[in-house]
């Protein structure tokens, strides 16, 4: 039976022949270019070709989605590829094998849950910001320029600069992990090369001795009986609040006057030195038989307290210290030490800083101490003259 000729006019009127499942209309000028008309009413343009003795076909598009001229132009391009030894269908299969970002994100989160202490933060940024935008996109279709524009839009939405930087870092990390695991589409990291403005979100807030006294007095009035000892220990040790709340009784060494922290923020263990005033606070803490934590959860004594947010905000407001963060007590502890003449290296060791740069933010406090020293010397000299 002769093949039905495919032209722009015949394509317009083409239908499946009666009592047949499908009817093919072939173009006379581009070998293999065909319009397939099915008994269900569907019509689709294909390019059919032989590859290593097997007939294959490449879907160009549905009749209602593409014009005849555009379909024929695509068929000509694909036919040229076949003549040169290429295989459009294999290339298409490879493209489909590239996963969507949502699949990579799931693997990223599984890895983070095993190795990352801040898993909840990563999961939150993924769920709220990254996956809604890129989850249904194939990895090879994620373009660096589009990512840069998306990050700019995030800034325009009012997100803090530090939040946008974190989103960018997590997104880039996905592709770093994908490349390490050999996932198709991760050979190129679309985040790499996107410039970010220098970010300086280091916030320094210190309270003086009078403000510390007001804060402790307000904490004593809290309905949370553990708030006052927590605030007191934070001011006297410079510990991170998470380190203190998870402290175990077994890690308190009264003889050596230390509190052992098995894992700190930088992943290292350390021994926090305890002043006598800190030991006195610990000695006054209630300790039930078999207690594990210094600050147990009121709901489950086998777990430790995880937050003091409500009591903290109430005490802070009562002490008239608006905007003071719990973490500022760590800075304040450092300022008390530096202004008492303790050198920055020792302060860094007490706080558990991983490098000297982390302690450098307190250098101006040391300068205040030095200025007081030279003023005292100048005054003494004036008295002697």
Distance between the termini: 124 Å
Task: Give the low-confidence spans.
Answer: none
Number of helices: 16
Structural class category: alpha+beta
Average per-residue pLDDT, rounded, comes to: 86
Strand percentage: 5-15%
Architecture overview:
- The structure is a single chain.
- The protein has 16 helices and 8 strands.
- The strands form 2 sheets. The protein has a 5-stranded mixed beta sheet with strand order 1-2-3-4-5. Strands 6-7-8 form a 3-stranded antiparallel beta sheet, with no helix packed on it.
- α9 packs antiparallel against α11.
- With 385 residues, it is an alpha+beta fold.
- β4 and β5 (54-62) form a beta hairpin.
- The chain is elongated.
Please sum up the structure shown:
With 385 residues, the chain is of the alpha+beta class. Helix content is 49%, strand content 11%.
Key traits:
385 residues; 5-stranded mixed β-sheet; 3-stranded antiparallel β-sheet; 49% helix
């Amino acid at each position: 039976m002769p093949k039905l000729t495919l032209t722009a006019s015949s394509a317009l009127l083409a239908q499946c022949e009666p009592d047949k499942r499908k009817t093919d209309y072939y173009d006379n000028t581009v070998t293999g270019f065909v319009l397939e008309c099915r008994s269900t009413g569907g019509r689709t343009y294909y390019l059919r070709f032989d590859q290593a003795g097997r007939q294959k076909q490449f879907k160009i598009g549905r009749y209602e989605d593409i014009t005849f001229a555009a379909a024929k132009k695509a068929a000509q391009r694909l036919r040229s590829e076949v003549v040169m030894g290429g295989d459009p269908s294999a290339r298409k299969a490879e493209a489909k094998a590239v996963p969507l970002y949502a699949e990579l994100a799931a693997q990223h989160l599984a890895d983070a849950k095993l190795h990352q202490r801040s898993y909840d933060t990563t999961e939150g940024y993924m769920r709220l910001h990254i996956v809604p935008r890129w989850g249904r996109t194939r990895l090879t279709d994620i373009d660096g320029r589009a990512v840069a524009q998306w990050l700019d839009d995030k800034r325009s939405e009012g997100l803090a600069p530090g939040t946008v930087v974190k989103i960018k870092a997590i997104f880039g990390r996905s592709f770093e992990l994908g490349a390490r695991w050999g996932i198709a589409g991760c050979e190129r990291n679309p985040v790499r090369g996107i410039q970010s403005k220098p970010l300086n979100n280091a916030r320094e807030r210190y309270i003086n001795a009078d403000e510390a006294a007001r804060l402790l007095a307000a904490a004593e009035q809290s309905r949370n009986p553990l708030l006052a000892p927590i605030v007191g220990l934070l001011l006297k040790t410079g510990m991170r609040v998470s380190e203190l709340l998870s402290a175990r009784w077994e890690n308190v060494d009264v003889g050596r006057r230390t509190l052992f922290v098995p894992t700190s923020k930088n992943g290292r263990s350390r021994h926090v030195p305890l002043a006598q005033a800190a030991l006195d606070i610990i000695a006054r803490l209630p300790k039930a038989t078999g207690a594990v934590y210094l600050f147990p959860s009121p709901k489950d004594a086998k777990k430790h307290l995880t937050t003091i947010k409500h009591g903290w905000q109430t005490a802070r407001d009562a002490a008239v210290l608006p905007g003071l963060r719990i973490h500022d007590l760590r800075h304040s502890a450092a300022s008390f030490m530096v202004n008492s003449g303790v050198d920055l290296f020792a302060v860094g060791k007490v706080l558990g800083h991983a490098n000297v740069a982390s302690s450098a933010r307190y250098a101006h406090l040391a300068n205040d101490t030095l200025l007081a020293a030279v003023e005292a010397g100048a005054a003494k000299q004036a008295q002697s003259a």
